[in-house]
């Protein structure tokens, strides 16, 4: 393909992605489903060139920024609270699915070794959460369900790719369970260490630069800085990217300026839109190429199709069988969490009355730990996973383009390679269009509703009152409050700040040039904003409020800071 042809294709792809994203809500479908269907239709147009991108382009160039963007926006508090469920779905379920599919393929293809069959099982085992979360957000799924789906999508690719690499290596030699387990443990630990270090260092560097254009440019290379050295160390580069994103999201809100975070959020949303949807369009475009490869190899296309359907059914059954005990365990433990919340309430009430405890050097830290544990217990007690939520989790097993890219990365001398790649495509297509297309209907039939908007507004108001009171106590009620030069604020300025509290209007409109008293107001309000941010960070760390409420409060504080800095 020449340069001009490539430019035309790229422009058309962007226009198709934008159009599909705009009209997806009117059709009631997720954008990825529309793009796959459009890609399928375009691929069979006479004269359309065969599309066969290198699998490394997806695994090494597209997947890292996609996962990083999703991880940065994942509330770490929510991820921590559902880590056990996310780990079960993204690690244990992937392994069980891979070995189950491997056993089926081993029985169907006589010349396929068991290790090779497990490698193919690893290819089709990780669900892609993009379509499920896109549908869930539009239809208002509860935040906890969305967190579990997004968290599963962040980690399961790493599990599958590590297992794929281990299984492919086993096809060339003797297989040792303990050696494979050791490789898996090494890949996970090294990835987390490198990714967390890259995320921490990147945020520190960006906080020193404090220029939105430059810091955003650095953020674009962070996923690759985490991915490349981890892969060179033969660990999971994908998991390193996720770790870097989670660390950046958790520490960036404290260290990066509002302008930096706003610029990064806008730019990354654009990148995510193009890459995320572009890979689904590419997935549809590859149909003709895959069918041609199978036919040219003298193999049966329909045989690959029915094998893909059989694998799809097996994956669905395994997922349902796995989700049922997860939901049952969560429901059974709900009374325990209610009792834990009550005990932590009593413990906090006792320590608040104990003057010796309040004066203890570690008293504040222990009290914060008790608050966090109480918030966790309340969260589990009030956000249980019912059978309706379990049904959505079980039906959200859509596979995506990573499955297809991983299948195409199989060695060229792999037995039945072309047929197995088509099998992977059938699994991805059927689950994405079939399950993804019917997921909205399932959600409506089950009557699942997300957070009540009126309740969310009340919780946001309560949080803002708490933040304002904490800020007022730290700044306005502080007898030692001083300006930057050491002098006191004028009493009229402090009184005016008390009147407006959280509402920050344009200070320039009130500050006449040359009036030293009125010029103090922006400085005082900046101190107040800093104290508000400290109080909000404290609420975020204890987990006392829903992450969505925290995010909305953060947006209001950021808007106030922008208005103040622009004055």
TrEMBL record:
Keywords, alphabetical: Cell membrane, Ion transport, Membrane, Sodium, Sodium transport, Transmembrane, Transmembrane helix, Transport
GO BP field: regulation of intracellular pH; sodium ion import across plasma membrane
Region spans: Disordered: 538-567
Localization, UniProt: Cell membrane
Main localization, broad class: membrane
GO cellular component: plasma membrane
InterPro entries xref list: Cation/H_exchanger_CPA1, Cation/H_exchanger_TM
Domain Cation/H+ exchanger transmembrane: residue ranges: 15-443
UniProt topology in membrane: Multi-pass membrane protein
GO molecular function: potassium:proton antiporter activity; sodium:proton antiporter activity
Domain of life: Bacteria
Pfam families with a match to the protein in the record: Na_H_Exchanger
Bilayer-spanning residue ranges: 6-23, 30-51, 57-76, 88-108, 184-205, 212-229, 235-254, 266-285, 305-328, 379-398, 418-443
PANTHER family referenced in this protein's UniProt entry, alphabetically: SODIUM/HYDROGEN EXCHANGER, SODIUM_HYDROGEN EXCHANGER 7
Name of the protein in its database record: Peptidase
Organism name: Brachybacterium ginsengisoli
